């Protein structure tokens, strides 16, 4: 499949979130063209947009995609149906779910150990809930947080997506890399662009579930944590400098 005509758009709305959309036109082996669109709604979606790339090479993503503001944020929510393969559904990715979850759990706990907190335990019920949401993201081609509850409490949640096959290690490392922006001298307040990292190492989180799903053009992953992290006023009690 050959790819061409790629555009990316972004805007901010008065609800405090950022909205992003990427549209790609691809030419199939039979010569037919297909339009693929991914929509994202997330306060740090720009990080995911910059991770997108057309092929797995060394070029910087921001050099490949041209970002420009949208005049009308509502245009992001118009129905954008592909011209082919309308009924595409989530399918298994290259790394099976068991391997994906075990790899993600292993790196999570290695990183948590660096920050002096106890390891997470893999919870099958959380993994099933995460799988439901990953399948939803793959079918809707959007990146939005769920409001999933476990034991009557809303879970913590990290999301990830990219256009090439996912691995548990790559996903976890991407979240953890936000630590470079984290200021340990200012732990009373939430710090933007660090929420994935702080959830990974959050002391009070004890259990986790991982899942992934493949959509027609993007691969999506979800991690759900219990108890949830990232509570205002509790960062100094749950996020510690690495040893």
Total E-strand runs: 11
Shape label: globular
Instruction: State Rg.
Output: 18 Å
Low-confidence stretches: 8-19, 52-93
CATH architecture of the largest domain: 3-Layer(aba) Sandwich
Q: Could you name the CATH class of the largest domain?
A: Alpha Beta
- Overall helicity: 25-40%
What's the average pLDDT?
A: 75
**What is the structural class?**
alpha/beta
Strand order of the largest sheet: 4-1-2-3-6
Secondary-structure element order, N to C: EEEHHEHEHEEEEHHEEH
> Domains counted in the coordinates: how many?
2
Beta-strand portion reads: 25-35%
GO cellular component, one term: extracellular region
Protein name: SCP domain-containing protein
Domain SCP: 99-233
Organism: Adineta steineri
Structure description:
Strand 2 and strand 3 (about 35-40) form a beta hairpin. By secondary structure, the protein is of the alpha/beta class. The radius of gyration is 18 Å and the shape is globular. Helix 3 (about 95-115) runs parallel beside helix 5 (about 170-175). It has helices spanning about 45-50, 60-65, 95-115, 125-140, 170-175, 195-200, 235-240, and strands at about 1-10, 20-25, 35-40, 65-70, 120, 140-145, 150, 155, 155-160, 205-215, 220-225. The chain has a five-stranded mixed β-sheet. It has a four-stranded mixed β-sheet with strand order 5-10-11-9. It has a two-stranded antiparallel sheet with strand order 7-8. It folds into two domains: about 5-55; about 100-235, Pathogenesis-related Protein p14a. The chain is about 25% helix and about 25% strand. The chain is built from seven helices and eleven strands. It comes from Adineta steineri. This is SCP domain-containing protein. InterPro entries: Allrgn_V5/Tpx1_CS, CAP_dom, CAP_sf, CRISP-related, SCP_GAPR1-like.
């Amino acid at each position: 499949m050959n790819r061409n005509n790629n555009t990316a758009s972004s805007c901010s709305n008065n609800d405090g979130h950022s909205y992003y959309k990427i549209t790609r036109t691809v030419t199939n082996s039979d010569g037919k063209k297909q339009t693929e669109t991914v929509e994202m709604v997330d306060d740090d979606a720009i990080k995911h947009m910059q991770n997108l790339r057309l092929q797995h090479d060394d070029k910087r993503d921001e050099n490949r995609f041209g970002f420009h503001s949208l005049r009308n944020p509502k245009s992001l929510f118009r129905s954008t149906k592909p011209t082919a393969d309308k009924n595409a559904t989530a399918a298994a990715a290259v790394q099976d779910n068991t391997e994906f979850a075990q790899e993600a759990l292993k790196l999570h706990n290695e990183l948590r150990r660096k920050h002096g907190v106890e390891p997470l335990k893999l919870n099958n019920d959380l993994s099933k809930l995460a799988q439901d949401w990953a399948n939803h993201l793959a079918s809707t081609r959007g990146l939005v947080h769920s409001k999933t509850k476990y034991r009557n409490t809303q879970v913590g949640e990290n999301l990830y997506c990219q256009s090439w096959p996912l691995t548990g290690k790559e996903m976890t490392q991407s979240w953890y890399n936000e630590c470079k922006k984290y200021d340990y001298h200012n732990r009373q307040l939430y710090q933007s662009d660090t929420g994935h990292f702080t959830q990974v190492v959050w002391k009070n989180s004890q259990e986790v579930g991982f899942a992934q799903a493949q959509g027609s053009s993007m691969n999506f992953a979800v991690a759900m944590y219990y108890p949830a992290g990232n509570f205002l006023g509790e960062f100094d009690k749950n996020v510690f400098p690495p040893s």
